[in-house]
Design goal:
The complex is a heterodimer of chains A (303) and B (291).
Chain A: H1 21-24, H2 27-43, H3 47-63, H4 68-72, H5 79-92, E1 104-108, E2 111-114, H6 115-140, H7 144-155, H8 165-194, H9 216-239, H10 258-276, H11 280-302
Antiparallel strand pairs in A: 1-2
Chain B: E1 5-14, E2 22-32, E3 37-41, H1 48-53, E4 63-68, E5 71-72, H2 80-86, E6 87-90, H3 103-113, H4 118-132, H5 136-139, H6 149-161, E7 167-171, H7 179-196, E8 199-203, H8 207-213, E9 216-221, E10 224-229, H9 231-234, H10 238-243, H11 250-260, H12 272-283
Parallel strand pairs in B: 3-8, 3-9, 6-7, 7-8
Antiparallel strand pairs in B: 1-2, 1-4, 4-5, 9-10
Helix pairs in contact in B: 3-4, 3-6, 4-6
The chains are: A mainly alpha (303), B alpha/beta (291).
């Protein structure tokens, strides 16, 4: 396996034309649902809520006919960082919520592990997993054209307040469209510099202790390439008559259908329920039940 | 004599196991002897770039063998750094990989990566710049990005030549160059081989360059070797080449055209000079002083 093709495996920004219910949804609905789900995942503060969200996301993955392992491939390069932060959290978490009762599980030296810190780590891991699935799902089921149009239509009403909706969605679209191109460019540059003896480590994973100077042979040519492309793109757009978004019509017309509203309604209700209902109580119940069950099984084995 | 570079039944698939899977090489065989200049030609997407990236272990063989300078490149314990010091690779449009502020520093990047001392680095930079035709004193302190495109390409090439590799691989070296600069480059490639015994592997679409410098040619189509031999053996196969979207050099086309008109001339000629001789002989003319 090539050391350098790690970048091509990035699933963010790739569209998988499988064709499913999720693929066919109106992009505006998808953007709103995505935002709601991201917010809910970010603020979920109990195991039960997190697990419910995970199950919901897995359900959507199933609906989208997307192979799960493909969506999770982006997680692999981030794993060392996740473990690093998890360990940091474990060692240095201070119980901040005074109303919370945290029972100490283990104490050794200056390190204290409580149920609260353990929960923080568990939730963090679940949260990261859910973010990964959500982002991959979002980009795997929508083309950049759909997303641009969806975003622009959603933000259009704000143009009354001099908000640059068109320009912003254009920037977004160009960034998404060129991400794989620049990744390919980076691969090319890495190969060229490696051929001259430069060291970049394995699997594209950069060593933790690395001087900034080592990055220059990659960053300078990449920046220059990006700037060159930007210049060429500007000329190309102007040569085809682009003069800004004012009065610009579109080939793609977005028309919502009932299934879009239905999906949106379901997701909104689900997110509201998960966000507002206090699942901590259920957490406690589940914990006691599981704890009791484990004690029973253990005593059976011991006997 | 043992070949310095050997490829046996090489296969390669990009992104295997994903929906974006693409087979690039389907069993390529190749052999290059020390000091030879071998060209690889083929239509776009035939796997030429994939093939040459195996030679300095940028890509490892998925199936089949690649043996370079006595090292099996499928070996997990391969000293990759050692290999890259002896197999120099110049990519297409190499001027895009320049990053140092000063020309001299960029050329020195390669030798410095291999831990050579300052004296040696300086000597190599000087020699490399001389090989590509850049004046050492005049260019070594120039700002890299103020040079012209052609000069930047020379700097990039010098950067690889400073490693003094025994095998040099070039991907489309004359791409985007005017005829004079292109000609100059080909002369320098020949010089490298004649004066230093460097083995050269060339990938090119420019048949005129290929016919000028190659000892042997490999035609790669759809990831397979379809034709192999000296230029005199390969280029007359006009029908085969055309069926794969390739064309023979202009001189071959001219001779084929003449033969089709009934003239009894050989088609395996490589230069205007040879063509002139043959045509004159055919018609019984005295030779003129065509340069």
């Amino acid at each position: 396996m090539s050391e350098f093709s790690a970048f091509r495996h990035i699933t963010i920004g790739q569209y998988l034309p499988v064709g499913s219910f999720v693929h066919g949804l109106d992009p505006r609905a998808k953007i709103v649902m995505f935002t709601l789900l991201v917010a809910t995942v970010a603020f979920a503060n109990s195991y039960t809520a997190s697990v419910l969200l995970l199950l919901a996301l897995l359900g959507i993955v199933y609906l989208a006919h997307t192979p799960l392992r493909y969506a999770l491939q982006g997680l692999r390069p981030a794993l060392p960082w996740i473990t690093f932060f998890a360990v940091l959290q474990l060692l240095f978490y201070r119980d901040q919520y005074g109303s919370e009762v945290c029972s100490v599980i283990w104490r050794g030296g200056f390190v204290t592990v409580t149920t609260c810190s353990l929960r923080q780590i568990g939730l963090m891991a679940l949260r990261l997993l859910e973010f990964m699935i959500l982002i991959s799902l979002f980009t795997l089921t929508s083309t950049t054209t759909q997303l641009t149009h969806g975003l622009e239509r959603l933000l259009h009403p704000l143009e009354r307040f001099s908000f640059p909706a068109h320009e912003l969605s254009l920037v977004f679209a160009i960034a998404l469209r060129f991400a794989p191109t620049l990744a390919g460019e980076l691969e090319r540059i890495m190969k060229a510099q490696a051929s001259r003896g430069a060291d970049f480590g394995e699997q594209g994973r950069l060593r933790f202790i690395q001087r900034t100077r080592n990055m220059l042979p990659l960053m300078v040519p990449l920046f220059l390439s990006a700037l060159r492309r930007a210049e060429d793109l500007t000329l190309a757009m102007e040569a085809r008559g682009y003069t800004g978004g004012r009065g610009r019509t579109s080939f793609i017309q977005l028309r919502p259908v009932p299934s879009d509203y239905l999906a949106l309604a379901l997701v909104t209700i689900f997110c509201a329920a998960v966000a507002l209902y206090n699942f901590r109580a259920i957490d406690g119940l589940v914990a006691t039940a599981v704890g009791g069950y484990i004690k029973d099984v253990a005593s059976l084995i011991v006997r | 004599m043992k070949p310095t570079l050997r490829v046996e039944d090489l296969h390669h698939t990009y992104l295997a196991g994903t929906p974006f899977e693409a087979v690039s090489l389907q069993g390529v065989d190749m052999e290059v002897a020390e000091g030879e200049i071998v060209s690889i030609i083929g239509p776009t997407g035939s796997g030429k770039s994939t093939l040459i990236q195996h030679f300095n272990a940028l890509i490892r063989p998925q199936a089949g063998r690649v043996i370079v300078l006595g090292q099996d490149l499928g070996d997990a314990d391969l000293d990759v750094k050692w290999l890259r010091r002896h197999v120099g690779m110049i990519f297409q449009s190499p001027e895009q990989q320049l990053f140092e502020q000063y020309v001299g520093d960029d050329i020195a990047f390669g030798p410095r990566n291999f831990g050579l001392d300052r004296q040696e680095v300086r000597r190599r930079v000087q020699k490399a710049m001389h090989t590509v035709g850049l004046d050492f004193e005049g260019f070594k302190d120039r700002l890299t990005f103020t040079l012209s495109g052609g000069e930047m390409r020379k700097v990039a090439m010098a950067g690889v030549l400073a490693l003094e590799p025994s095998i040099l691989v070039l991907d489309e070296p004359t791409c985007g160059l005017d005829p004079v600069t292109s000609n100059d480059l080909l002369c320098r490639i020949l010089e490298l081989r004649n004066n230093h015994g460097t083995t050269i592997v060339l990938v090119s679409h420019d048949m005129e360059s290929v016919v000028r410098v190659s000892d042997r040619i490999y035609v790669i189509v759809d990831g397979r070797t379809v034709l192999e031999g000296t230029p005199r053996e390969v280029f007359p196969e006009a029908e085969l080449l055309r069926s794969h979207g390739l064309e023979a050099p202009q001189i071959t086309q001219v001779m084929c055209g003449l033969r089709n008109q009934g003239l009894d001339v050989p088609v395996d000629l490589l230069s205007v000079r040879e063509a002139e001789e043959e045509i004159c002989r055919c018609f019984g003319f005295a030779e003129t002083q065509v340069e």
